[in-house]
C-alpha cells in the first residue's frame, strides 16, 4: 500500500476506480438512507410498543387490585351486623370480624390492612389486631365524604403515611349505614404503595424514562418512579399532553411529549381505568430510544464521508492527471496522507483486510482500542481469531458472496472477542477492493461499537421474560383471543394451580368449553358485548377441574385493534373467585338456618303462649268475681296471693306476646312531639305507690324547662316500664331515680338504681332474649329475661339509642337518647283513665253473647258480667252460635279468635254483621301470639284484646267499642 506505481498505470487504474467507487457510493448512499429511515421508524415504534405494554400490564394489575378490594368492602358492608358497629359490641364481635378481615389479607399482598371504624371515626375492628394501634380517622377527608354524602359509594383517599403502620398507603373505603340510611361507620382497605413501587422499579424504562400512577379525576400523583421528594399527591399541571388528551375523552393513548418534571422529551403511553378514577403512564426518554439509531447513523455517515472523500480525491486526481503529470507523484502522496488522516481519525473502527488470508493489513486506533489490542498486536490477528465462533459461519458466508460478486457489500451485527477474552458487539459494514481484473484483493470494513445497545436489548428481553414469569406466578391469569374469539394465549401456571388444563383452552371459544353457573341469557349478553367490541368486566363462570372440583373465575377483557383500527381480538385477565363463591354459599345457608330457627322459636312461643293464656284468662275473671263476693280475712289473703301469682304469670306471657308482635312487624310507631314531663309523671304514678312495698324510695327529678322529644309516647312508655320494672325487681336497698336532660340536639332520659350492678362481661349480652343475671333459681317473678330484648326492639322502632353503664355493688344507669322535636308538644299523650268496673252501669240489663271454646273462660266471662247485671248467653262452637236464634240482636258480642267448627272469630263476627241490619258491637279475644295469627286478627274490622284480660280492661273496651259502633267512620283497632 505504500509503494507509488507509474503514472500511466495509475491513470488507467484511476478511471476504473472512479467508476467503481461512484457506483459503490451511490449504492451505499441509497442503502444508508434506507437504513437511517427504517432504523428511526423501528426505534420509535419499539418505544411506543414497550410503553403501551407497560401501561397495559400496570392497568390490569391495578384494576384487579381495586376490584378485589371493592368486592371485599361490599361484602363487609352487606354482612356486618348493625349491632357490631359500636364500641360496646367490640368484645362480642371482634374475634369473628377480625378473623374474617385477616382471612382477606392472607392472599392479598397489595393490602396493608382492612379496618372498620364507627361513626366517630374510632377503629373498631382490624386485620392484624395484635400489631395495629388504635386510630381515629374522623379528621380525614374521605371519612367526611362518606359521612356527609349518603350517595357516596367507593371513595379513595390521598396518599399518606398510615396511622396504623407508618408506611405510605392509600385508603379505599365505603360507608356503613343502617336500614334507615343513618351513617354508622366506614369499612376501609389500605392499598400498600410500596407494592406498586416495587412493581414500577422492575420496569426497564431507561435513565430518562418514568412510570407514574395518578388520579384521573383530579390528576394528583399517587406514585412515580423515579419519585422526586414531595411528589405524593402533587397535581399534574394543566396544559400537559397527558392531561389534555384525557380531558378530550381519550381513555388511552400513545404520545410524544415533554416531561413536566425533567423537561426531557419522552415517548409515552397512558391508560385510564374504566371503573376507577386512576390512570397509569409509562414513558421512555426519546434520546434513550433513539440512541442506537443515532450511533448507527453516525457510523453510516462516517463511512459515506470516507468513501465520498476517496472518490472526490480520485476524481480530482484523474481530471488533472494529463495536465499535471509532473505533479502526479506529489498528488498521490498528498491523497494517501489525506486518506491516512481520515482513516486514523475516524470516530468508528476502520480496517483493511487481505481477502485470501483474512489478515489485517491496516487498522485504525479506534478499532484497536475497541478490541483492547495495540496497533502492532492488531496486525498479527486475523478475522477468524477475533470473531465469536457463533458468528463466524455467517460472516464467512457473507464474505464468500462478496468475493463472488453476489453482494456489492454487506452489513451485519456480530460479536468480537477482545484481548481479555470478553465479548463485545459491533455493527460492521464491509465493502470489497478489487484488482483491475476484478479479482477480490482486499476488503475495507467500518465497525461501530453497539455493545451498549445490544446489552440494553438483552436487558429488555430479560425484563420481558421476568414479567412473563411474574404473570405465570400470579394467582390471576392473562389471556388473549383472536378475532373469532378463539383463545390464542393464556397463563399456564395460574390455570394449573386451579386444576385446569390450559392446552384445552387454546383454539376454542369460551362457550365451547363446558361450564356451569351461566344461563343462556348471560351467554347471549356476553356474546352481544363481544360482537359490539365492548369492554366487559366481572363475567363469572364455573368449571369442573381435573380433580372433579368446581372452580369459579371472574373474567374481564377489552378489545384489541391494530394501528389501522382493525379488530384483532380480545385480551384480558381472569381472577379465581372460588373462595368467594364458597363463602357466599355458606352465608346463604347460614342465613337460611338462622331464619328457620327463628321461625321455629316463634311458632313454639306462640303455641305455648296460647295454651297458657286460656286458663289465666279464666282465673283472672273468676278472681274478679270472687273478690266481689263476701270473703273472710283469710280468704281475702289467699285471693291476694293468688292474684299476685296470676299477675306474675301474666307478665311472663305478656313478654312473649310483645316479642311475637315485634317480630311480626305489626307494631308501627306514631312519632309526634312528646312532653317528657308527662311521660315521667306517668311512670311516677305507676311505680311510686308500689316501690315502698319493697322498702325502696322512688324519686323523679323534674326539669325547670320541659323537653319535647320526637317519639312515639306509648312505645317510649313501654320502654321505661321495662327498665324501671327491672330496677324495682333487682334493687334490694336504696331506690330508683328517674330524670331527663338535654345533650346537644338530643334528649336523654336516665334511670338510676342502687341495685347489685352488672359485670362488664355481661353488658354486651343484657339485650339478648332470655339472658338474666342474678337469677340462678329462675325466679319467675323476675321474668324470663325478655324485658331488655323488647326494649332493644322498641328503641329501634322509634329511633332511640339505649346505653347502659354499671358498677358492681354500686348500681346501674340506663339512658334512652332521642332526637329533640322541632315543634312543641300538644299536652299529655295519656288522656285515657282506666275504667272502674262499678262504672259499667250502662250495660246493666244488656244482652251479651259470648262465643268461647274454652269452657272455663266462657264461664268466667259469664259470671263476671252477670255479676254486673248483664244477661250473658255463651256458645262453645261457631256453628252452634250461628244456628241459634238467641244470637240475633244482642247488644254486644265477645268472641274468641280461634274456634272449632272451621270458622274463626273474625269470620263469625263478619257473618253476624251481614245478618244484622245495624252495626254490631263486638270485640275479639285471642291468646295466639304467632306473627301470622296476629296479622290475621288485627287486620280485621274488629277490636282485638290479647289474653289474659282483666275485667276493667274488658269493660273499657266494651264501652269504647259500643260508642264506635254508633260512629263506624271513627272505629279504630286495638292491639
Anisotropy-based shape = elongated
Instruction: Quickly give the structural class.
Output: alpha+beta
Q: What is the alpha-carbon Rg in Å? A: 48 Å
- Named at the architecture level, the CATH assignment of the domain at 667-819 is 2-Layer Sandwich
Strand content: 15-25%
- The total of beta strands comes to 33
In terms of quaternary structure, what is this? single chain
Keywords, separated by commas or semicolons:
single chain, Beta-Lactamase, elongated, 5-stranded antiparallel beta sheet, Heat Shock Protein 90, 24 helices, 975 residues
Task: Describe, in plain words, how this protein is organized in 3D.
It is a single chain. With 975 residues, the chain is of the alpha+beta class. Among the domains are: 152 residues, 2-Layer Sandwich (Beta-Lactamase), CATH 3.30.450.20; 103 residues, 2-Layer Sandwich (Beta-Lactamase); 153 residues, Heat Shock Protein 90; 134 residues, Rossmann fold (3-Layer(aba) Sandwich), CATH 3.40.50.2300. It is built from 24 helices and 33 strands. Strands 1, 2, 3, 4, 5 and 6 form a six-stranded antiparallel beta sheet that branches. Helix 6 packs antiparallel against helix 7 and helix 18 runs antiparallel to helix 19. The C terminus is likely disordered.
Amino acid at each position: 500500500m505504500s509503494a507509488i506505481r507509474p503514472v500511466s498505470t495509475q491513470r488507467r487504474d484511476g478511471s476504473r476506480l472512479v467508476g467503481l467507487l461512484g457506483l459503490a457510493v451511490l449504492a451505499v448512499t441509497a442503502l444508508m438512507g434506507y437504513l437511517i429511515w427504517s432504523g428511526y421508524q423501528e426505534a420509535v415504534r419499539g418505544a411506543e410498543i414497550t410503553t403501551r405494554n407497560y401501561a397495559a400490564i400496570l392497568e390490569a394489575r391495578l384494576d384487579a387490585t381495586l376490584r378485589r378490594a371493592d368486592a371485599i368492602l361490599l361484602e363487609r358492608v352487606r354482612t356486618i351486623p348493625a349491632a357490631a358497629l359500636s364500641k360496646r359490641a367490640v368484645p362480642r364481635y371482634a374475634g369473628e370480624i377480625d378473623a374474617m378481615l385477616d382471612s382477606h389479607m392472607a392472599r392479598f399482598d397489595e393490602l396493608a390492612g382492612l379496618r372498620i371504624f364507627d361513626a366517630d371515626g374510632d377503629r373498631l375492628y382490624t386485620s392484624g389486631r395484635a400489631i395495629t394501634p388504635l386510630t381515629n380517622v374522623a379528621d380525614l377527608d374521605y371519612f367526611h365524604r362518606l359521612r356527609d354524602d349518603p350517595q357516596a359509594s367507593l371513595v379513595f383517599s390521598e396518599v399518606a403515611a398510615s396511622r396504623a403502620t407508618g408506611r405510605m398507603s392509600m385508603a379505599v373505603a365505603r360507608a356503613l349505614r343502617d336500614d334507615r340510611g343513618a351513617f354508622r361507620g366506614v369499612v376501609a382497605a389500605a392499598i400498600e404503595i410500596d407494592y406498586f413501587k416495587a412493581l414500577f422499579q422492575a420496569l426497564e424504562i431507561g435513565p430518562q424514562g418514568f412510570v407514574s400512577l395518578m388520579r384521573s379525576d383530579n390528576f394528583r400523583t399517587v406514585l412515580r418512579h423515579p419519585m422526586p421528594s414531595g411528589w405524593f399527591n402533587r397535581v399534574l399541571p394543566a396544559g400537559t399532553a397527558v392531561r389534555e388528551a384525557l380531558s378530550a375523552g381519550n381513555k388511552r393513548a400513545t404520545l410524544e411529549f415533554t416531561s413536566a418534571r425533567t423537561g426531557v422529551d419522552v415517548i409515552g403511553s397512558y391508560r385510564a381505568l374504566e371503573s376507577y378514577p386512576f390512570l397509569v403512564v409509562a414513558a421512555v426518554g426519546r434520546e434513550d430510544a433513539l440512541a442506537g439509531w443515532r450511533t448507527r447513523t453516525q457510523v453510516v455517515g462516517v463511512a459515506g464521508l470516507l468513501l465520498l472523500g476517496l472518490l472526490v480525491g480520485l476524481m480530482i486526481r484523474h481530471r488533472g492527471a494529463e495536465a499535471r503529470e509532473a505533479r502526479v507523484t506529489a498528488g498521490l502522496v498528498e491523497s494517501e496522507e489525506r486518506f491516512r488522516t481520515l482513516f486514523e481519525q475516524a470516530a468508528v473502527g476502520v480496517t483493511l483486510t487481505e481477502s485470501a488470508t483474512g489478515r489485517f493489513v491496516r487498522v485504525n486506533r479506534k478499532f484497536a482500542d475497541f478490541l483492547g489490542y495495540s496497533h502492532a498486536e492488531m496486525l498479527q490477528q486475523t478475522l477468524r481469531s477475533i470473531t465469536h465462533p457463533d458468528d463466524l459461519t455467517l460472516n464467512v458466508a457473507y464474505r464468500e458472496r462478496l468475493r463472488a460478486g453476489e453482494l456489492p457489500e454487506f452489513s451485519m451485527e456480530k460479536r468480537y472477542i477482545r484481548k481479555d477474552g470478553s465479548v463485545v458487539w459491533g455493527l460492521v459494514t464491509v465493502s470489497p477492493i478489487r484488482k483491475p481484473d476484478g479479482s477480490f484483493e482486499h476488503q475495507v470494513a467500518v465497525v461501530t461499537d453497539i455493545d451498549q445497545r445490544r446489552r440494553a436489548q438483552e436487558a429488555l428481553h430479560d425484563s420481558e421474560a421476568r414479567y412473563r414469569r411474574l404473570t405465570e406466578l400470579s394467582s390471576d391469569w392473562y389471556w388473549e383471543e383472536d378475532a373469532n374469539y378463539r383463545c390464542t394465549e393464556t397463563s399456564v401456571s395460574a390455570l394449573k394451580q386451579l386444576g385446569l388444563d390450559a392446552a384445552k383452552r387454546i383454539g376454542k371459544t369460551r362457550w365451547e368449553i363446558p361450564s356451569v353457573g351461566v344461563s343462556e341469557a348471560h351467554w347471549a349478553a356476553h356474546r352481544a358485548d363481544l360482537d359490539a367490541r365492548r369492554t366487559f368486566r366481572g363475567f363469572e363462570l364455573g368449571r369442573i377441574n381435573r380433580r372433579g372440583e368446581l372452580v369459579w373465575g371472574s373474567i374481564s377483557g377489552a378489545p384489541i385493534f391494530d394501528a389501522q383500527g382493525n379488530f384483532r381480538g380480545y385480551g384480558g385477565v381472569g381472577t379465581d373467585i372460588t373462595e368467594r363463591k364458597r363463602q357466599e354459599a355458606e352465608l346463604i345457608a347460614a342465613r337460611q338456618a338462622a331464619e328457620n330457627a327463628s321461625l321455629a322459636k316463634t311458632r313454639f312461643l306462640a303455641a305455648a303462649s296460647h295454651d297458657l293464656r286460656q286458663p289465666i284468662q279464666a282465673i283472672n275473671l273468676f278472681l274478679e268475681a270472687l273478690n266481689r263476693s263476701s270473703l273472710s280475712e283469710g280468704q281475702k289473703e289467699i285471693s291476694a296471693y293468688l292474684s299476685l301469682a296470676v299477675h306474675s304469670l301474666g307478665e311472663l306471657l305478656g313478654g312473649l306476646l310483645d316479642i311475637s308482635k315485634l317480630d311480626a312487624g305489626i307494631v308501627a310507631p306514631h312519632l309526634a312531639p312528646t312532653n317528657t314531663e308527662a311521660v315521667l309523671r306517668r311512670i311516677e304514678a305507676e311505680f311510686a305507690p308500689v316501690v315502698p312495698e319493697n322498702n325502696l324510695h322512688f324519686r323523679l327529678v323534674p326539669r325547670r324547662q320541659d323537653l319535647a322529644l320526637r317519639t312515639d309516647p306509648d312505645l317510649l312508655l313501654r320502654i321505661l316500664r321495662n327498665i324501671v320494672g327491672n330496677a324495682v325487681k333487682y334493687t334490694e336497698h336504696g331506690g330508683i331515680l328517674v330524670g331527663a336532660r338535654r345533650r346537644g340536639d338530643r334528649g336523654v332520659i336516665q334511670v338510676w338504681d342502687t341495685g347489685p350492678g352488672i359485670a362488664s362481661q355481661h353488658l354486651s349480652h343484657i339485650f339478648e332474649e332470655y339472658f338474666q343475671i342474678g337469677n340462678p333459681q329462675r325466679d319467675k317473678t323476675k321474668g324470663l329475661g325478655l324485658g331488655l330484648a323488647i326494649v332493644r326492639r322498641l328503641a329501634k322502632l322509634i329511633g332511640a339509642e339505649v346505653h347502659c353503664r354499671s358498677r358492681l355493688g354500686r348500681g346501674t344507669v340506663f339512658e334512652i337518647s332521642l332526637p329533640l322535636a322541632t315543634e312543641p308538644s300538644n299536652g299529655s299523650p295519656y288522656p285515657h283513665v282506666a275504667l272502674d268496673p262499678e262504672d259499667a252501669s250502662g250495660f246493666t240489663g244488656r244482652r251479651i253473647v259470648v262465643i268461647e271454646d274454652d269452657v272455663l273462660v266462657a264461664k268466667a266471662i259469664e259470671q263476671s258480667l252477670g255479676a254486673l247485671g248483664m244477661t250473658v248467653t255463651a256458645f262453645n262452637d261457631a256453628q252452634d252460635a250461628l244456628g241459634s236464634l238467641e244470637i240475633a240482636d244482642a247488644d254486644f258480642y265477645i268472641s274468641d279468635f280461634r274456634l272449632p267448627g272451621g270458622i274463626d272469630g273474625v269470620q263469625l263476627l263478619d257473618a253476624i254483621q251481614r245478618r244484622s241490619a245495624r252495626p254490631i258491637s263486638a270485640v275479639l279475644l285471642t291468646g295466639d301470639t304467632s306473627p301470622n295469627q296476629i296479622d290475621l286478627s288485627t287486620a280485621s274490622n274488629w277490636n282485638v284484646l290479647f289474653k289474659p284480660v282483666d275485667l276493667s280492661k274488658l269493660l273499657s273496651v266494651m264501652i269504647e267499642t259500643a260508642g264506635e259502633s254508633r260512629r263506624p267512620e271513627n272505629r279504630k283497632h286495638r292491639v
